[in-house]
Fold this sequence. Notes:
Layout: E1 13-16, H1 24-33, H2 35-40, E2 43-45, H3 53-61, H4 72-86, E3 91-95, H5 107-114, E4 119-125, H6 128-140, H7 154-163, H8 173-178, H9 180-191, E5 196-200, H10 208-216, H11 237-253, H12 257-272, H13 288-308, E6 311-313, H14 338-354, H15 368-380, H16 403-421
Parallel strand pairs: 1-3, 1-4, 2-3, 4-5, 5-6
Helix pairs in contact: 3-4, 9-13, 12-14, 14-16
Amino acid sequence: MAETTAPFADGTRVLHIGPHKTGTTGLQRAFWASRDLLAEHGVLWAGGTAHPMAAAIAGATGGQIATARPGSGEHRWLDLLAELDASTARVSVLSSEFFSDAPAERIPQIIGQLGADRTQVVVTLRPLTRILASQWQQYMQNQPQVRYGDNPSYEGWLDIVLNDPEQTAITPTFWRRHRHDRLIQRWVEQVGADRLSVVVVDDAHPRGVLASFERLLGLPDGLVREPEATANRSLTLPEVAMVRGFNAGWIERGWSDADYTRFVRFSSVRHLMERTPLPDEPKIKTPQWAVDRANEIGAEMVAAISDLGVRVDGDLALLHTAVPRGVGDNPVEVAVPADAVARFTAGLVKVVATTPARGAVDTRRLGPIETAVREDKIRRGVRDEPAHGPVPPAERPVAELSRGALLRLALGRVRRRLRRGR
């Protein structure tokens, strides 16, 4: 049976902890885009961006993004806390799925910094069957920094995480994030059941999670617009096969996490995701045995969550009855579309072309490749400011380039590499 929740009291600080792959990106983008409207109704979306990732990682775990200089994440976290303290908003919201990574011993510190007497924790939950493929391909977008053993296929990964959930050799963050009953219990033990709310994400009603947050924040229904349907889409099977192949070469060469984060994770992969997959391009399918096992675990989680006595907005039964969009066996071999290769390559070309020779990097740690790119540009006298006139393809947004232009740009870079190698 579906339940709904009443709005939070004035003066509340809402901490939305995700976890990952539960509609967090779409929610964050939608509310950030509506921040002026939120302000008119006394609501602050804290952090200065849709998702203050660096600050949240520092606050949640004490860690930082691979490109960050030591201490920079902590400074951002303290700045975010100062923003909350200075705000006169009726309700403030801090949203980051990385708070789901917080170990139990760190949660009291987080709650203490936010104010234990005014903090309400919100957890968004999606059926495990709808999370598996999405979380796996997300791991592949950051594979060099993910504990991933012998690089198993999707099916191999499913066998490991579903049939040996206590192992920690492969993606140990998966069950920390997605054993949802234990996640909720960790936070309830610190804040109490009366200060934690669960929002169940129903993919059949895409706007449902926005409506739930509008209710919790005391906002008019329909105030926040839905994000674009293409926002944060998952990689297709051919795309993720290409990225895994690229990652294998990167890992084999021992190249740095900082360079991967800048050039691949936050650049090339994001450019790849701007493309529109071909109509017949295969998506990742989850085998039936994994769907059945995930729903068994989902039923266990629903029972445990119900016993915790937390507030629920939505239907908990969805967490053990939902079927993923794609069920079945994946082909052993897939053909990678040429425009996918071109867009991925063009993304690399673009970020190299737009990396400045000099420039402020006070909050970033440079990897060896970026350092070499900058030094090479200084040696060759490359100017940081582009000349007036038409913007060359390498400096234009990848989304503005046609498939033909992408192919020409990628092939041109390959030809120049070959000529230099002679």
